[in-house]
Amino acid sequence: MVARLSRSFSSHMLDENELELPAIDDADSMQDVARKISQYIITAIPDVPCSFDDMRLSVVGHRLRPLIKHLSDNVHNPTLICALMVLKWHFDNLPDDEIGLNESRGLACEYVAWQFLTSLNHREIIEFLLQDLSDSRRPSVTTEDPEQGSLPTTREGSQLSHERTPLLANSASSVYSVFDSRRPLNTGNTFNEPGIDNNQLAFHGLNALEIAGIVLAKKFLSQKVVQRIIDDIWRGEIVFWDSLNVHAKKTPHVSRKRHIDPYCRLRIPVYRKTFEAVFFISFLTIYYAVLAQRNPSAINTVEILMYIWITAFAYDELSGILDAGMLFYQLEFWSLWNLGIIGVGIAFLVCRIVGLAKESGYIIELSFDILSLEALFLVPRICSLVSLNAYFGNLILVLKEMTKAFLKFMPVVIVLYLGFLTTFTMLARDRLTLSEMSWILVKVFFGSATLGFDIAQDISPVFGYVLM
């Protein structure tokens, strides 16, 4: 305790002149920007952790203010916010000590990014948050106004984003290559490890807002300046496309209704969600009609419509995976439900065709039994539309965390189950078989306590009641 107070006092007395402001050029790559800022962050938070809220009032926040002012006044590198988000990811993935020092440094990156955005106007915020990276560097911030829908000029050799630009050009391992996490933890006040990879395509196709979502920069994303941009994207006030042709270029700008292609409005999230609701309601109606008719001898018109709906849904999901990348796609809570709908639909189609080809009544009945399982995924998926409400949206997050906790606890349950199964099977070896004992124990584990006491005498007159 005394040692920690001593370190805290010494850190408070740190001369601000030791905090050398990073010299960031507009042409620096994202990796270079991250390295330069990391040196300042490590020096500003040497040995005393703090929370995000503490940075507003504590001495750590006082040390970060010169950096924020320097970035706001002198730095115009378009990869700055991306670099801070990637740096936050790097600190969060370093092996940390018990006091959470690296976590505090990651929060400092979010704090600096937030404060930097507050010094920008609306046009500049759009540029820094939403312009995709290209060749590890985004196009420079131009004097052309995104609010007028103009396209920024890119540097020579840059690759323009298009509709099929993947969210992650490389696999997740490419992200790790930017900051080689396999190298030993740097405990000093510098960040000049020679093992840092300069792979320029590691974050190709990502913008700062997407990176923030992937690295779980929750504090940054919750700030009003960021939420305002997200709301504008949701309502279609900020769009990325002006037309739906092969020569269209993806660039974020404020929507101009007089000049935008009407079909581009279909890309606006609120409209997509509306069409999604209509699609699922019609899908559910067709699904119930197929189950109600249950034609065992032939495929009727309604069933053909259901196959078309399943194919369209599968195509949309595949397009989403190709566009966003698997790493970003799996962040969606309902992705498992979507894959379940597709999987059950394909299984039904295969069994249905095989049953009709072989004229097997059993296989045909089995195919409709499989189709009945579709409701387990389809009905909750329609209810997901209520997650747009703040209250139900929070419940979805709680359900997601509960599911994660349940899956983490399952190995412990399995180990305990196997232990009790072995013991009870040996005790009742002359009276109950392994399969009977397994089923009894499953019922007991799922809460049928009275069954356990009823069978305890048969398991063992001596140990049965004690073990139950």
What can you see in these coordinates?
With 468 residues, the protein is an all-alpha fold. The chain folds into three domains: 2-261, no CATH class; 268-388; 390-467, no CATH class. It is 59% helix and 1% strand. The chain has 20 helices and two strands. The chain has helices at 2-12, 30-44, 59-74, 80-93, 101-118, 122-130, 172-178, 208-214, 218-221, 224-235, 269-293, 301-324, 326-329, 335-358, 361-372, 374-383, 390-427, 434-445, 449-459, 464-467; strands at residues 238-239, 253-254. The protein has a two-stranded antiparallel ribbon. Helix 2 crosses helix 4 and helix 14 packs antiparallel against helix 16 (374-383). It is flat and about 80 Å long. The protein starts with a helix and ends with a helix. Residues 1-16 and 135-200 have low confidence and may be disordered. Residues 150-160 have a biased composition (Polar residues). Keywords: Membrane, Transmembrane, Transmembrane helix. It holds the Pfam family YVC1_C.
Question: Terminal Cα separation, in Å?
Answer: 47 Å
What is the strand content? under 5%
Per DSSP, the total helix count is 20
The main sheet comes to: 2 strands, antiparallel
User: How much helicity do the residues have?
Assistant: 55-70%
Q: Over the alpha carbons, how many angstroms does the gyration radius reach?
A: 29 Å
Which structural class matches the secondary elements? mainly alpha
- Number of structurally distinct domains: 3
Mean pLDDT: 78
Order of helices and strands, N to C?
HHHHHHHHHHEEHHHHHHHHHH
**Number of beta strands:** 2
Order of strands across the widest beta sheet?
1-2
Which geometry do the CA atoms define? Answer: flat
Q: Which ranges are low-confidence, i.e. pLDDT below 50, for 5 or more consecutive residues?
A: 1-16, 135-200
Keywords: Membrane, Transmembrane, Transmembrane helix
Protein name: Calcium channel YVC1-like C-terminal transmembrane domain-containing protein
Transmembrane segments: 275-292, 304-329, 336-355, 375-397, 409-428
Organism: Talaromyces proteolyticus
